[in-house]
Amino acid sequence: MLIKDFLKKYWWRYSIGILFLIVVDIIQIYIPKQIGNIVDVLEIPNFQMNDIKKLILGIIFLAFGLVIGRFLWRIFIIGAARLFQFKTINKMFDHIIELDQNFYDKWRTGDLMTRFTSDTNQIERLMGPAVIMLVDTLFMSIFTIIAMGNFVNWKLTFLAIIPLPLIAIISLFFGKVIHKKFTQLQEDTSELSNITEESVAGVDVIKLYSNKKTMEDIFNKRSKRYYDSYISLIRIWGLMFPLVMLLGAMATLFVFFFGGKMVIMNDITLGQFIMTNQYVGMLIWPMMAFGFLINNIQRGRASLKRINNVLEQKSLINEPEMRQMEFTGNYQIKDLNFNYPENERKVLKNINMNIKQGDMIAFVGRVGSGKSTVAKLMAKIYPVDKGKIIIDDKDINDINGKSIRDHVSYVPQDNFLFSMTIRENISFSNKKLEPKAENYAKMASVHGDILNIENGYETVVGERGVTLSGGQRQRVSIARALAKKSEIIILDDCLSAVDTETEEAIIKNLRKEIKNKTIIVISHRLKAVKDSDKIYVFEDGQIIEEGNHNQLMDKKSVYHSMYMKQLIEDKLGEEYNG
Ligand SMILES: Nc1ncnc2c1ncn2[C@@H]1O[C@H](COP(=O)(O)OP(=O)(O)OP(=O)(O)O)[C@@H](O)[C@H]1O
């Protein structure tokens, strides 16, 4: 489909390119003829210098024709192939950027990278060099054989080309083996990219655990596998080329043997003998091209399959059309059960919630109890059954995910900052907000920290935000979410890197600054969220208690004991420090 659509639009590029390629093939046929003619003229006693000059001029003229022709076919055919690659890469990127979280949970980055790089390179070869090989195999071999027969002698032509089809057979046979090895190599390249990506991303962990050895072992194993695959491929190539050359040499031998005899018997001239030798040399490439062509088609098809596989990925969420909607931030969750796609385990069981605009809500509970999952579902990051989440009287399934996320700012636990300036990171949702970045940083209580950094707001955040401390990164992400100006802000345990007092102060400040907006805070520190309008206590995917702080304390149950435990821990901590 990809190729069909492209050819529908750019067939003319190929037509012009192929036309020039054929012209070049025809011109090439005449060069050996001219050379042969020169030899024959030289053999005439008292030859005319003028005839030689004319013939040499003819060669120069043909050579110029070759230069122009080759330049033009390259521009049209290789240009079109690169355009195809460029369009495919963009299409893949536009496609995956629209896919839901499930795709990113499932696919590994290294694998995706290989499909974007080496697979698109492979299909570029299919759309460019393979087309050239096809034309050369067909036209150049036919033209050369006709020229040999017509300009020299048909008998010698047949004798000389006897070994040549063997070259095509060898290329074909080797092509099959090469294809198998190449597929293996592609897989090993993906594996190597994966481990490289993982090792770089997790370099801190590797160092902190002083576990260079384990990682090195895994890396070396993968890299060795990649190396072995490559060597095995090179061996096949290495065997193929000398064999082809051997067959080419055999054809030349045939020409010497039979052609030599013919020259002695005066059946052909010396010029024609030289001509035949050159034509035989010219036939080696189209024969090899035939084998390469099959190779390229096979590899290209494998890569095309891998690319189509990415393009066929669908979001699990069927998005309705984007519509303008009044979004106030009222959420109703009714008997919500949930398991992650392709995972049977229920992580949420019978969740019921009623969140009103302007409320400050807290989700607390043990790790893995389902707090983040509820928050993600509220932002429509994963699909839910109908009738389970209602936003302003509308089922979440009937609202486009993007329009929900336009109104909901979700700040996740692992805050990813781009390698841009702090100012650009904060105003990521809208470039126009750049001059106001300071305001949002103040709201997120990170303004002072930013001013203390040498280049302030113009500091370029290193890869994955390494120039900032964990707490600073978290607050810059909050500032980025605030700049989005949405009706709901969800802070998913994103203040864990600051101390309790700072977390408490930031939340209080936020509440003051963004009145009328719904704030959902997921936190392990109960003290920081005790002023919430409502606190939901999670355990094992269920809500086991709900109410405000006082109501929950009066219950003297799970929340109460969690709170008292943290209070004691804080006291002990203070005494220890003091
Ligand atoms: N993408 C995923 N695929 C499959 N299971 C997942 C996925 N994300 C989370 N889970 C599982 O869902 C359960 C709830 O996870 P969730 O992140 O909602 O917990 P949480 O209460 O937010 O925990 P924490 O306080 O550690 O953030 C966990 O058992 C977790 O293993």
Automatic annotation (TrEMBL):
One example GO MF annotation: ATP hydrolysis activity
Subcellular location: Cell membrane
Gene3D superfamilies linked to this entry: ABC transporter type 1, transmembrane domain, P-loop containing nucleotide triphosphate hydrolases
InterPro entries on file: AAA+_ATPase, ABC1_TM_dom, ABC1_TM_sf, ABC_transporter-like_ATP-bd, ABC_transporter-like_CS, P-loop_NTPase, Type_1_exporter
GO cellular component: plasma membrane
Domain (ABC transporter): residue spans on this chain: 331-565
Domain ABC transmembrane type-1, residue spans: 16-299
Name of the featured protein: ATP-binding cassette subfamily B protein
